[in-house]
Amino acid sequence: xxxxxxxxxxxxxxxxxxxxxxxxxxxxxxxxxxxxxxxxxxxxxxxxxxxxxxxxxxxxxxxxxxxxxxxxxxxxxxxxxxxxxxxxxxxxxxxxxxxxxxxxxxxxxxxxxxxxxxxxx
Length: 121
Prior knowledge:
Layout: E1 11-17, H1 28-40, H2 50-60, E2 75-83, E3 86-93, H3 98-118
Antiparallel strand pairs: 1-3, 2-3
C-alpha cells in the first residue's frame, strides 16, 4: 500500500524505467504508442482504437481528437521526457486517485502493446 499521500491540485514527478534498465522504447513506433497513451489515458474514455490514433499521428503529425470526448481528466499532464530505458513526467492530481488510475491505464496499455508486439508465438 502506498504511504505517500497524493493531494488534489498538487504536482508530482513520476518516472519509470525498464526492467534491469533495459530499453523500454525499441523504436519510434514504440515512442509514438507510448506518447498516445500518455496524452489520452489521462481522460476517462475508452480507447479501443488507440493503434489507429497512433498511426494517424505518424502519418499526419497531428492527433485526431475529433471523435474523442477529452474532458474531465483524472490527472493533468504538465510535461514529459522519454529516454531509451525510462521516462519522466510531471502530473497534477485532478481527482482523488487520478494519478494512480492514469498511470495504471498507461502502463498496463503499454505493457500489453509491447508483449503483443515483441513476444514470439
